[in-house]
Automatic annotation (TrEMBL), chain A:
NCBIfam families: oligo_HPY (TIGR01727), PRK10419.1 (NF007739), PRK11308.1 (NF008453). It comes from the Bacteria. It is a peripheral membrane protein. The keyword Cell inner membrane does not apply. InterPro entries: AAA+_ATPase, ABC_Ni/Peptide_Import, ABC_transporter-like_ATP-bd, ABC_transporter-like_CS, Oligopep_ABC_C, P-loop_NTPase. The keyword rRNA processing does not apply. One of its GO terms (molecular function) is ATP binding. Pfam families: ABC_tran, oligo_HPY. GO terms for biological process: peptide transport. Residues 8-257, 371-610 form the ABC transporter domain. It is found in: Cell membrane. It comes from Actinacidiphila glaucinigra. This is Peptide/nickel transport system ATP-binding protein.
From TrEMBL, chain B:
It is a multi-pass membrane protein. PROSITE patterns: ABC_TM1. Keywords: Cell membrane, Membrane, Transmembrane, Transmembrane helix, Transport. Residues 97-312 form the ABC transmembrane type-1 domain. Belongs to the binding-protein-dependent transport system permease family. One of its GO terms (cellular component) is plasma membrane. GO terms for biological process: transmembrane transport. InterPro entries: MetI-like, MetI-like_sf. PANTHER family: DIPEPTIDE TRANSPORT SYSTEM PERMEASE PROTEIN DPPB-RELATED, DIPEPTIDE-TRANSPORT INTEGRAL MEMBRANE PROTEIN ABC TRANSPORTER DPPB-RELATED. The chain crosses the membrane at residues 12-31, 103-124, 136-158, 190-208, 244-268, 293-319. This is Peptide/nickel transport system permease protein.
Length: 690, 326
């Protein structure tokens, strides 16, 4: 392996941008190299400099950027080339796949034309030849009916298909290096699995080196050969995936690995969050940039920034003064440097589920939207079956995780519960009362007991209000006196782990994680019984997310709360939920305790969903066999007859004809398995996938 | 698409008819053609005035509904009625549409293209001196009344002519009627066209470039432009092929409406440079109580708005696949 010279070699790359506050030092000494056929994962949280480095390699940074160092492609220095010469390299020798495939394709040209363009920039092909090649490429990346689809425009493609088209474009000129910048971040997990598969295939076809940039340690574990972890513009640890995942020797890597919720570690326990926030890149403190958050920082750390070198007793480079101590059997055990917060026991945990009172009961809820057509006179041409008859309940002190991919109806469900239902049929009962008929005072009481936390804390908090007023607002609405509010607000801040003295600050002065804590504090102000959490951590970096998840768990135990936790990330749900409901196309296809659903998933969709979630564990990932779903989620306006999952169901394909007939004609109702575990499949059978 | 356009056309024709009728009523009620005959020397006999007015269907004493019916009947048969001086509105109309077209054709094409290019260029060079200068200049132009611009140009032309010693730049009328040879007439027309075109172009470039600059700025930071460059297009090629094409879209309707409405909106330019086009006619016909002419201009304006609507729809659909109806 070490014989082949690297295809791309980056040495001591520095990038800074001018800003009003002074130069932003986005990248400070990045070095890496990739050989042909190798995959390097560059992992880091937002602001770590990972994307900036990749754009610097391609010469796509704005002209104001100050770039130093060296980028060599097969020994040829790229940073010295002018833009004209770089155009010969971009798209030919180095290709790039970007994150959001909707905005990354030009909306006014057909997908085929955009691939043709990529081909004809670098190859001497006539229009017909290029067209033919473009169709072949689309076929290669798995676009069905490629000859026809080549004429489609980006908005007519689904997210997954667009990303496939992006990959087709990237491999069009048989590149030496493919840089993929968060290629699956905007996609659902089953689509992510498909795209990773396509990327693998693209690599096999081209033999290219891949640099995969991501924030997700799970995605690269099974995909990359080597990883480089970045923090505050620098690599802090780099090595083979096995070295970094199993023998991390730098506290940030250790913390990151400890803070990711995992699907495979037996469920409910507290995560190890990394306290604090990444430093500002404008005026970095002296010493190790991680020192402020590091549990084992010393004086030396605060004075001298550690170099990235192979340290004593290790075999891969780390940037930490204490790496030599961080070995199993050394003076510092990597497993224990971060204090693991205890998982508080909720009072409800000791009471069997049947004996606890239900706080929310949803029974047969249906919400269809008319599909309208026409500019002036709208006529109904169909129906979007957003929620199509779902039932579940949440009992006191319990967290129900409602999971599913985009378009499955989880948001509509949540809105129906929050906005008092307008649904066509079914009932929603909160604290024993049917909320449809509620009026006046009863409704106000319900509003107090049922609170909500949204995904984006910045959008949910009024930026012109100080935190004290934000938290006081719900109290004021419910007639609290000024004195009581003044006493309650600091108490709330303390409860969510913020400084009670910060009542006068504005939302913009807090970090993302802190803002989400403020949203939580506001939801808790009136001591509700049920809190609806809509993707509460999906906008946060993992190291921050862990702290918020722990907080939610702790509050639940302390205040005997119940949660309806809506999320797309199954690993997160695994960590917080007692019970799981899996939605697909307006229905709950599987429902049961977290142990049952994750341990013995019985609906083919749940199985595929779970198997698509990457684990931050290279060895397991290498051995796992994914259940890949074909195609995209059908539109809820066009629900298949019989079982709505059948056109993608891997099990359906393996059934004999008579059984298939049943799937085709009969809409499966939830059938009971062990305990209160149900699955809506005629042929439900447990499979272990994690 | 064809059917959709047809439906819109029918809807719009109805609107044009309503607008034209309302214009007629408004003009017929508020304008008094009889006043044109007052104070004439020698005085005209009242009976003969009435006879003339009746003849032209302009007599304010005839109930407006009756006059309208008469007018509408004429219009339905392609006759727009008579002017206060007895001429056929049809003839005047045709002549003036011709004048306006000759005046506007080149100016609007150059103005639109120039506006788009200046705007896009400003966006690409945001905050550089060239961008600041064009921004400042266009706001200066937009803040200035049209007649000030036109008169200023006229004065400059006079200075230039004086300096050269003979009239290189003309500033009154369409051409010199005293000339004969085709070449000479053509040259004379160009000499006459220069200043009014310049006036219109400057104003249009200033206006359109502002819109174009801001839509282009939105596009500059877009991911697809980055993708285009990552494919291997040079910055320039990416900007022209992917950036400008997308950034022009939102400006298209505005451009089309502005251009088409200039047909009756170039009043000052026409008046100052002595071009007898539609814009001038609107003002003149109101001041001479010329009811039928006002109605004709009104109808024309409504019709032109209809065309603008259709044109911008068709153009937009041609440029943006996302709105195409399949
Ligand atoms: S150098 Fe010091 S502060 Fe930095 S990670 Fe190592 S121990 Fe922590
Ligand atoms: S009912 Fe049939 S098609 Fe549906 S999930 Fe079960 S096996 Fe698949």
């Amino acid at each position: 392996m070490s014989e082949t010279p690297p295809a791309l070699e980056v040495t001591d790359l520095h990038v800074s941008f001018p800003s009003e506050a002074g130069p932003v030092r986005a990248v400070r000494g990045v070095s890496f190299s990739v050989r042909p056929g190798e995959v390097l994962g560059i992992v880091g949280e937002s602001g770590s400099g990972k994307s900036v480095s990749s754009l610097a390699v391609l010469g796509l940074l704005p002209e104001t950027a100050d770039i130093k160092g060296s980028v060599k492609l097969h020994g040829r220095e790229l940073l010295e080339l002018d833009d004209r010469d770089m155009t010969e390299i971009r798209g030919k020798d180095i290709a790039m796949v970007f994150q959001d495939p909707l905005s990354a394709l030009t909306p006014v040209y057909s997908v085929g034309d955009q691939i043709v363009e990529a081909l004809r920039i670098h190859q001497d092909l006539d229009k017909a030849q290029a067209r033919k090649r473009a169709v072949e490429l689309l076929d290669l990346v798995g676009i069905p009916d490629p000859a026809r689809r080549a004429g489609a425009f980006p908005h007519e493609f689904s997210g997954g298909m667009r990303q496939r088209a992006m990959i087709a474009m990237a491999i069009a000129n048989d590149p030496e290096v493919i840089i993929a910048d968060e290629p699956t971040t905007a996609l659902d997990v089953t689509i992510q699995a498909q795209i990773l598969d396509v990327l693998k295939k693209a690599q096999e076809v081209t033999g290219a080196a891949i640099v995969m940039i991501t924030h997700d340690l799970g995605v690269v574990a099974g995909f990359a050969d080597r990883v480089q972890v970045m923090y505050a513009g620098r690599p802090v640890e780099t090595g083979t995936v096995d070295d970094v995942y199993y023998r991390p020797r730098m506290p940030y890597t250790i913390g990151l690995l400890g803070s990711i919720p995992r699907l495979d570690d037996g469920g409910r326990h507290a995560l190890t969050p990394i306290d604090g926030n990444p430093p500002s890149l404008v005026d970095l403190p002296a010493g190790c940039p991680f020192a402020a958050r590091c549990p084992i920082a010393t004086d030396l750390c605060r004075r001298v920034e550690p170099e990235l070198t192979v340290r004593e007793g290790g075999n891969h480079p780390t940037a930490c003064h204490r790496s030599h101590e961080l070995v199993a059997g050394g003076s510092l055990d990597p497993a224990t440097i971060y204090p693991v917060p205890p998982l508080p026991k909720a009072p409800a945990d000791s009471v069997p589920r049947e004996d606890r009172t239900p706080v929310l009961e949803v029974d047969g809820l249906v919400k269809h939207f008319p599909l309208l057509y026409g500019a002036v006179v709208k006529r109904k041409v169909g129906e979007v079956r957003a929620v199509d008859g779902i039932s579940f309940d949440i009992r006191e002190g319990e967290t129900l995780g409602l999971v599913g991919e985009s378009g499955c109806g989880k948001t509509t469900t949540l809105l129906e519960i929050l906005d008092l239902p307008s649904g066509q049929s079914g009932t929603v009962t909160v604290f024993g009362k049917d909320i449809r008929g509620l009026k006046g005072a009863e409704r106000k009481a319900l509003r107090r007991d049922l609170q909500v936390v949204f995904q984006d804390p910045m959008a949910a908090l009024d930026p012109r209000m100080p935190v004290g007023d934000i938290l006081g607002e719900p109290l004021k609405t419910h007639g609290w006196s000024r004195d009581r509010i003044a006493a309650r607000v600091p108490e709330l801040l303390g409860q969510v782990g913020l400084d009670p003295d910060h009542v006068d600050r504005f939302p913009a002065e807090f970090s993302g994680g802190q803002r989400q804590r403020i949203s939580i504090a506001r939801a808790l102000a009136l001591e509700p019984k049920l809190v609806v959490l809509d993707e509460p951590v999906s906008a946060l970096d993992v190291s921050i997310q862990a702290g918020v998840l722990n907080l939610l768990d702790e509050l639940k135990a302390r205040m005997n709360l119940s949660y309806l936790f809506v999320a797309h990330d199954l690993s997160v749900v695994r960590h917080i939920a007692d019970r799981i409901a899996v939605m697909y196309l307006g229905r709950i296809v599987e429902l049961g305790s977290a142990e049952a659903v994750f341990g013995a998933p019985s609906h083919p969709y749940t199985q595929a969903l779970l198997s698509a979630v990457p684990l931050p564990d290279p060895r397991k990932e290498r051995e796992r066999r994914r259940i890949l779903l074909t195609g995209d989620l059908p539109s809820p306006a066009d629900v298949p007859t019989g079982c709505r999952f059948r056109n993608r169901c891997p099990k359906f394909a393996s059934l004999d004809e008579s059984d298939r007939g049943r799937c085709r004609e009969e809409d499966p109702a939830p059938t009971g398995l062990a305990g209160d575990h149900t699955a809506a499949c005629h042929f439900a059978a447990a499979v272990t996938v994690v | 698409m064809g059917r959709y356009l047809l439906r819109r056309l029918i809807n719009h024709v109805a609107l044009v008819l309503i607008a034209a009728s309302l214009t007629y009523f408004l003009a017929a009620i508020s304008l008094n053609p009889r006043a044109n005959f007052a104070g004439r020397n020698p005085p005209v006999a009242a009976s003969s005035v009435t006879a003339t007015l009746n003849d032209y269907n302009l007599n304010p004493d005839t109930p407006v509904v009756v006059r309208f019916a008469h007018w509408a009947n004429g219009v339905a048969h392609g006759d727009l009625g008579r002017t206060v001086t007895g001429g056929e509105v049809n003839d005047e109309f045709a002549r003036r549409v011709g004048v306006s077209t000759r005046l506007l054709l080149i100016a609007t094409i150059l103005g639109s293209i120039g506006g788009v290019l200046v705007g896009a260029w400003g966006a690409i060079r945001q905050y550089r001196t060239s961008d600041r200068v064009t921004t400042l200049a266009s706001f200066f132009v937009l803040a200035m009344p049209v007649f000030v611009i036109a008169v200023t140009f006229k004065l400059w032309a006079i200075d230039i002519n004086d300096a050269v010693g003979h009239k290189v730049i003309e500033y009154t009328g369409e051409y010199d009627p005293g000339l004969t040879g085709t070449g000479e007439i053509l040259l004379s027309r160009l000499q006459h066209l220069l200043l009014p075109s310049l006036t219109l172009i400057v104003i249009q470039v200033a206006l359109y470039s502002r819109y174009q600059r801001s839509t282009m700025l939105d596009v500059l930071g877009s991911d697809f432009l980055r993708t285009a460059r990552a494919k291997g297009l040079s910055r320039r090629a990416a900007l022209m092929k992917h950036g400008l094409r997308t950034a022009v879209l939102p400006v298209v309707p505005l451009l089309v409406y502005n251009v088409v409405l200039l047909f009756t909106g170039a009043t000052f330019t026409e008046k100052i440079y002595g071009w007898h086009g539609m814009g001038e006619w609107l003002v003149n016909s109101i001041s001479t109580n010329d009811v039928n002419a006002v109605a004709a201009v009104g109808m024309f304006t409504a019709f032109v708005v209809l065309i603008a609507g259709l044109l911008s729809d068709v153009l937009y659909a041609a440029l943006d696949p996302r709105v195409r109806v399949r």
